[in-house]
Amino acid sequence: MAQKDTLVLLDVDGTLTEARQPIQKRMLLALHHLAKECEIAFLTGSSMEYIKEQLWPALNDKIIRDNCHLLPCNGTEYVIPSGDQEYGLNFKTLSKEVMRKKIGDDNFYNIIRKICKLQNNLMEENVSLPMTGHFVQNRNSMINWCPIGRNANTTERDVFKALDKTFKIREKYIDLLSPYINNLGVTVKLGGDTSFDIYPTGWDKTYALSHFNQSKWDFWFIGDRCEESGNDYEIYEMLKHKRRAFKTTGPTETVDLIDWYIIQNLRNHQE
What we know:
Strand order of the largest sheet: 3-2-1-10-11
Radius of gyration: 19 Å
Structural class: alpha/beta
Distance between the termini: 15 Å
Order of helices and strands: EHEHHEEEHHEEHHEEEHEH
CATH superfamily of the largest domain: HAD superfamily/HAD-like
Helix content: 40-55%
Strand content: 15-25%
Mean pLDDT: 93
Largest sheet: 5 strands, parallel
CATH topology of the largest domain: Rossmann fold
């Protein structure tokens, strides 16, 4: 029986998987063992499309599927998987927020216009950057802006990551965008290695906890973007004082945290 009062929330890119890559066998086994001890939740800034793409093997594992919650777009969407391999998997959406309704059409369109202007400036200033298309994505509850484009392959992503680390490209453009959108009640954070997540203030990953009765659940969290500019920061800060939040350097460390700390802690608590 799963321990229903415990929920371990897990970021995806950079935590369970390498960026935009499928889950690997060692992680799958760790999640299988974890799901026998408690409920788990996949909490990501990405959309359901990417959860299905990257975590499909995990969703095909009955133990994981029966004890997991899907929380795309910072948890502003809440989806439950059901079904099986024989008859097909289903996904039931229980809750879904819409950014345009929250801030109004005019503000939403003006943010898109501002991003497009900044994207043009970025391309003119950084002619060596790969540009692959699909720069702006409307995820309903947030806007994702990827300066090199979401069509980038692994090599192109690595080029951007190296240039961004050296020249602080995204930090510069957060500083340019933030004063404009903050006046609209909107926040911008670094999303993964190559993009920005832009959403109404308060719709960070702590929003995911609103789907659960917080007096009855014990929350844990693992993420990789726990610095102030990262999209794991707020939930990490909320839970770290309980020693229930962890910053990981990647999937290898995440497996160790699950196997050697969280599972062992939960088992000791049951004894």
